[in-house]
Design a protein that fits this description.
about 70 residues; mainly alpha; 4 helices
Length: about 70
């Protein structure tokens, strides 16, 4: 990513991004991704009775389970 400068200073957008790359943010993101992987795996293992109880179809589960971990 190129550093954008406006009138001799770092652009406000880039300056706001620089503070967001902390270890806390990185850890939270990795934790979120890990939770999504686990939840989607658990969802795929539910039987048809449990899926009906949740109002989900096998098609819904295949769609959700096939999404990459970084997708919401």
């Amino acid at each position: 990513m190129a550093i954008l400068r406006q009138r001799g200073t770092i652009s406000p957008r880039l300056a706001s991004m620089s503070g967001s790359f902390s270890f806390k943010t990185i850890f939270a993101t990795i934790s979120l991704w890990s939770d999504r992987i686990r939840q989607r795996r658990d969802l795929a293992e539910l039987d048809d009775f449990m899926l009906r109880d949740l109002g989900l179809s096998r098609r819904d589960v295949r769609w959700e389970s096939s999404k990459p971990f970084w997708w919401h």
